[in-house]
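During the first year of the project, the team set up a workflow for recording each protein of interest as an amino acid sequence followed immediately by a discrete structure-token representation. This format lets reviewers and collaborators read both layers of information side by side without switching files. As required by the reporting guidelines, we include two representative entries from the current panel. The first entry is reproduced here exactly as it appears in our internal archive.
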Amino acid sequence: MLAVGRELLIGRTLNTNAQWMGSRLARRGTLLAEIETVDDNLMEIASGLKDCLRRKPDFLVVVGGLGPTPDDMTLKGISNGIGRGLRLNKQALSMIKEHYARRNLGSMEMTPARKKMAILPIGALPVSNAVGTAPGVKLELEGTTVFCLPGVPSEMKSIFKESVEPEIAKKLGSLHRKYISLKLEGIYESALAPLIKTELRRYPGAYIKSHPRGIREGKSRIELDVAVVSEHKEKAEEVAVLIVREIRSAIEAAGARVVSERVGPPRAQG
């Protein structure tokens, strides 16, 4: 994910789009591998795009900077980064006009600011935005499918669910993720580390992550996440349950205890 917007860098706006997208992909068994945030600056956007493409991801989702205002310069930055010109896209312009019609705004004058949202890099395809005005944008670049989405959360989520997710599912296939979260008491992270290392050696494809939650009443508290992804639902469940059983046994043997066990995706920490 490439997030564009000075408001994200100066703390004016929390990047809830990245949190939502990461959680959404994790539930599908897919990983958001990197989040890069850049300023509303043509050079930074172009540089950020190149940095992301060097990793050769299956998909790159660029979020923010598609609107009509001068600081919305994502598509120009991408154009600079890939060495392509910009061109008014008639299909994108039609989408914008249809949006105004749906909102009963009549025949809105296509001012330069409104037309700006339909000026796309050459070769790009507009993507329908059922919630807002600016269309999303799709590009195929160096083996990576690039989607550019508006930064407004409701618009980003709508386009992601309608247009991005189906392509991810088609390319990556059906994946199943089994997630179990444990709350531990009476064991320090340094003592837990060797247990995690042992399990990762046994099950190298698993995700096991500890989250210290401080000390209360003289006892260390830790949340431990265990996740297993597989093309087969039964396999994911089987391995996750085995890991939890082995960790639980080792923790109890060390004199600590598992306070609770919860099945399901993680709850975001605010």
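The second entry, processed by the same pipeline in the following quarter, appears below.
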Amino acid sequence: MTLFHAVVLAIVQGLTEFLPISSSAHLWFFPWALHWADGGLPFDVALHAGTLIAVVLFFLGTWIALILNGFGIHYPTHASSEQVQTNRRLFWLLVIGTIPGGIVGFFFERFIEETWRNPGPIAAAMIAVGLLMWIADSTTGLRRVLEHVNLGDAIGIGSAQALALFPGVSRSGITIIAGLWRKMTRETAARFSFLLSTPLIAGAALKEVPQLMRMQRSGGVELPLSTLLIGIAVSGLVGYAVIGFLLRYLQTRTLKIFVVYRLIFGIFILLLMFLHR
């Protein structure tokens, strides 16, 4: 893998991890369509570490308040008791919402990647979730904000997040869809999606670290350290910008542009698949 390929894929990861268009589909597509070399596990870990850093830094203040309030600490000192109670409830709802995705990922992640990481299933997921997004985006009465999140939201959206393991689904896409069906505003659905994704993105990155360290000790890492660090930096910077962009975008706009993109991209994959036969 050249440095150019690494930078392109890092940009792709930063863009597609948080936009509702599936990072797994795009990271699979570029090497497949352009016949690029596979960066392997070390590069995958670097890209996910970058987007993990992005989402943690973007919501750092929120997470500090949620964690401290969740364990009964009044923070910040000027916060009202109502806000502290809201944060405490939201923290534990996020914990509950993380459980379905964690369980499915622990037991089935490897099987899903080996079975479904192919053009047909990925194209089908891109199109099917695009259609679901179109239906959800047409929902009326989207008024619920983050303070209104309840146990049903946590379980429903958390269960939807478990489907993100299938390439082409999109973690942000499927959870935003679930949030819209729960009558959340588009911006609230995206914000809750990003908060809910943080523990699982962290878990996915940290899960591979021991294996990466073993590979480094045995000399099994072919990519230069500089390439891995550049991948982390680029995916992190792009991911941070994308989070802010999407939250602002959804305050006043719909998801229609992402619906159209998903449908076109899914059809394009199918066409390439038939041409490659």
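For the second entry, the following points were noted during internal review. The mean pLDDT is 91. Residues 187 and 252 are 9 Å apart (CA to CA). Both points are flagged for discussion at the upcoming steering committee meeting.
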